[in-house]
Design goal:
Elements (H helix, E strand, L loop, with lengths): L3 H6 L17 H4 L2 H32 L5 H4 L1
């Protein structure tokens, strides 16, 4: 007799791709309007995060990093 846990989990999948079932690529979704918008949003998100990281590093170098002056060298 199956317990409540067994019914909820369903039958185990077989084959090498059993662990990757949740990560399948739906090509019809990616070619639809919503899929194209999602891809564009991801690209712009990656670019935006890269710009923020670069800007934060640049600000760190100019504002926070110790500076060497001619007085310190003498």
């Amino acid at each position: 007799m199956l317990s409540a846990r067994d019914r909820r989990d369903g039958l185990p999948a077989e084959g090498a791709a059993a662990g990757l079932q949740g990560f399948a690529v739906d090509k019809t979704f990616l070619s639809s309007l919503k899929g194209i918008l999602l891809e564009t949003e991801l690209v712009f998100g990656i670019i935006l995060v890269s710009v923020f990281a670069y800007d934060a590093f640049k600000i760190y170098r100019t504002e926070m990093a110790p500076r060497t002056t001619q007085e310190d060298q003498q």
